[in-house]
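B., you asked whether I could sanity-check this one before it goes into the benchmark set. Here's the sequence:
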Amino acid sequence: MTTVVSIDPRHPGAYAPLLAGSLPADERGVPVALGCEEEGRARAARTALCVGEDVIIRRVSVDAPCRRRGMGTALVQALCEAAAASGARRAEAYVSLSEQEQEAACALFRACGFEEEESAPICTVPLSVLASGPLGGPAPRQAVPLEDVPAYKLRAFQAAYARAGRGAELPALRGLLGQESMVWLENGMIVGCVLFAPSGQDVELVWLYASGTQAVRGLLSAACRALSRSFPPETLVRAATLLPSETELMRRLGGESFRQETEIRVFTRQLREEEEAAG
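And here's what the prediction gave me:
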């Protein structure tokens, strides 16, 4: 008989081999892990991050002899039910595997009620290249660390961005790199930002929004200088680039060190209706 159990991410016990490399380290959000037991043995595990009203589902690991027996599906369904009960409104899943594994993972999420939203390539550039290339000059005064900005200015910027209907929500600010993420100030108000978060041994470029080349270059230049003070030169800066212009920007900045990895595919599932969440 297969049983779904909760795992303490800090002390995974028998699930440690299944969770190796998938437990978040110093990332934004609250880590959650579930496992499947069969006859008292750890057979499968899945991890996720709870960020605000979202739960971000990470990879699943299943013992080879136990695959294609519904354990992955059971873990996803149990995770969604637990997240909804704790107040989460939406589940997200990101699939970036080899082509054969990717199709199996995509089929699993579709079977669990997820819909595919978008896909994007993952681009990487070493921090040392960014810091010594076109962005290596002095940081402009308009670029200010995120954690040095008063909360009311951040709220005003978020409200203005939402009213403008830019087509995507700003990410949750919790867990971001406060001194390395930057905002762009004009006349004392925030008009752009670049947001970074730790991602294992690497750094993730979570968000970049600014109007005009000067602001984009200024934000990235200030951020790279700050990152270079906090992280070793070999650190990789990763970014999921949804637009061709974003990929081209990373390519220009990275030069010969630019790498485009496996495409990432994004799936989402509504866990609660808007009316239910509001009530």
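One thing to flag: The mean pLDDT is 81. Otherwise nothing jumped out at me.
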